[in-house]
Amino acid sequence: MEGETVAANSRPVSANCDPPANAKANSGSSSFEEMFKVFAKFGDSKSVGDAITLSNSDKWFKQAKVIDGKKITTVDTGIYFKQIAKTKKALNVKEYNQFLEKIATNKKVELDEIKHKLSCCGPPATTKTTTAANTGAVARLTDHTKYTGTHKQRFDESGKGKGKAGREEKQSEGYVQGYKEEGTYEKVHETTTASN
Predict the structure, then answer these.
(1) Which value, to the nearest 10 degrees, does the dihedral of the CA atoms of residues 31, 37, 42, 45 take?
(2) Which residue ranges are recorded for the region named Disordered (predicted)?
(3) Span 115-154, pLDDT tens digits
(4) pLDDT of 30-54, one tens digit each?
(5) Residue 52's closest CA among 81, 91, 84?
(6) Which residues of 44-74 are buried (b: 16+ CB within 10 A; e: fewer)?
């Protein structure tokens, strides 16, 4: 009984992505096209999702576990992608289907199996991305509550910078246009003559 519960709990997260009974039936084409758009847009704010680049395609393949490092590799996807794309940097859905057919025939893998894995892998994940370090010196330098002196005055209670209002501006008036900081000449020269 215990072994059965472990096996039941080790199922993939997306339980509705079990292989279809009839592998030839292409029932997941609409979800495949939706996933195509999602991965085509990923990382490019200007993209509308009508064409996918090689790097996004490789990310999709890796997430769907189509690229296993043995039968299908990123070198293979690069070769077949460029055969279809020629000089273009991205493939539309029709060309991408040709790309998948080319991989399936050359690597002797079922096309429906590849499409099923791609349509069931979920949206692009950012699990292996680098996060900002907030330990040690970084925490001390970025915490505005620990600032002292005049630096403390540059931030409000919420930690937002005050900009110019947080700094004391020098007087910029004088009796002629190029003369700035009126009254500072005497202060500077009094201290130098007093020390002599």
Answers:
(1) -150
(2) 1-29, 142-196
(3) 999 998 888 877 666 666 667 777 777 777 777 777 777 7
(4) 588 999 999 999 988 888 889 999 9
(5) 91
(6) eeebebebbbbebbbbbbbbbebbeeeebeb
**100 conformational bin, left if phi > 0, alpha if psi -120 to 50, beta if neither:** alpha
CA distances from 54 to 75, 84, 99, 103, 145 (A): 11, 11, 11, 14, 46
Where do we find the tokens 């500077």?
188
Identify the domain containing residue 144 by its residue range: 134-165
Half-sphere exposure of 13 (CA within 13 A, CB side): 5
Burial classification of residue 114, based on how many CB atoms lie within 10 Å of its CB (0-12 exposed, 13-18 middle, 19 or more buried)? buried
Domain shared by 66 and 113, yes or no:
yes
In total, how many domains does the chain have? 2
Q: How far apart are CA 77 and CA 49, in angstroms?
A: 20
Quick check: is 178 in a domain? no
Residue 83, in any domain of the structure: yes
- φ, ψ of residue 5 in degrees (nearest 5): -70, -35
